[in-house]
Amino acid sequence: MQALSKELKDKIIKALEARQAKLPCPRCGHQSFIILDGFFNPTLQTAGEEPVREGPSVPMVVVICKQCGFISQHALGILGLLGQDQSPPPGQKIPS
Ligand SMILES: [Zn+2]
Q1: 14 CA to middle of ligand 1, Å?
Q2: Alpha-carbon distance 37 to 9, whole Å?
Q3: Cβ of 9: how many Cβ atoms within 10 Å?
Q4: Which of 23, 96, 2 has its CA nearest to residue 65?
Q5: What is the whole-number distance in angstroms between the Cα of residue 13 and the centre of ligand 1?
Q6: Counting Cβ atoms within 10 Å, is residue 54 exposed (0-12), middle (13-18) or buried (19+)?
Q7: How far is the CA of 31 from the centre of ligand 1 (A)?
Q8: H or E segment and range at residue 37
Q9: Is 22 strand, coil or helix?
Q10: What is the pLDDT of residues 52-94, one digit of tens each?
Q11: 17: CA distance to ligand 1 center in Å?
């Protein structure tokens, strides 16, 4: 897996700050976080009762509290980061 570039992480941080996502950790109050070196791309299951492995997905950036490890996720589409330059790994995506 290729790590996210510093430039992309800076864009993510700016996008989060622009949307006021800059409060301390909700679990421990710590104010320092890391961005995971890859995107989460969980599959969204919209029908049926049996789990599926493929389908539409919601690409997300993962932010981890440096002190307690609390994980938060932010949809890249909402942050305006699903452009061609920052596309996550191939797969179906829900329109932003
Ligand atoms: Zn924490």
Answers
A1: 21
A2: 9
A3: 16
A4: 23
A5: 18
A6: exposed
A7: 8
A8: strand 33-40
A9: coil
A10: 888 889 999 999 999 999 999 999 999 999 975 444 444 445 5
A11: 18
Average pLDDT, whole number, for the chain?
A: 87
CA of 11 to the centre of ligand 1 (A): 23
Residue with tokens 């596309």, as numbered in its chain: 87
Distance 23 CA to ligand 1 centre (A): 11
Query: How far apart are the C-alpha atoms of 21 and 19, rounded to whole Å?
Result: 6
Q: Which residues are close to ligand 1, an ion, with C-beta < 5 A?
A: 25, 27-28, 30, 65, 67-68, 70
Give pTM, 2 decimals: 0.78
The alpha carbon of 83 and the centre of ligand 1 are apart by a number of angstroms equal to 30
How do the residues of the chain divide into helix, strand and coil, expressed in percent and rounded to 5?
Answer: 15, 25, 60
Domain boundaries, given as residue ranges, for the chain: 6-44+54-86
